[in-house]
């Protein structure tokens, strides 16, 4: 691996990483080292959250943002809707949600919900 502080190498790596997160894209044979390494890292991240691509591409894709939303739902004591996620994805989501539940503070969530309601934001 070359110097990651090289802006050209870093940009190729990031382009490869973003491509690896997309399950519908396959790496091209003549990709440079930085792009190929980034693609491999991105693909590993995708498969860590969504399961192996060889097992099929799920209807809904789990990303770090989706997991943060489930963590927040757990922290606020909110119910979640896990429809259309695969069993693999639900296992990943459940760990994040449970982590949020462990941090659940009823007083804090009621205070936050009050602030949201004052600002016209309804939480279902």
From TrEMBL:
<protein>
    <submittedName>
        <fullName>Uncharacterized protein</fullName>
    </submittedName>
</protein>
């Amino acid at each position: 691996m070359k110097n990651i502080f090289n802006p050209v190498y870093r940009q190729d790596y990031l382009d490869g990483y973003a491509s690896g997160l997309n399950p519908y894209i396959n790496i091209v044979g003549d990709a440079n080292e930085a792009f190929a390494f980034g693609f491999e890292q991105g693909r590993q991240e995708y498969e860590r959250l969504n399961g192996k691509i060889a097992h099929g591409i799920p209807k809904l894709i789990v990303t770090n943002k989706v997991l943060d939303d489930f963590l927040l739902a757990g922290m606020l004591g909110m119910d979640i809707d896990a429809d259309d996620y695969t069993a693999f994805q639900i296992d990943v989501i459940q760990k994040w949600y449970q982590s949020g539940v462990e941090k659940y503070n009823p007083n804090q969530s009621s205070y936050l919900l009050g602030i949201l309601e004052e600002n016209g934001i309804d939480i279902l």
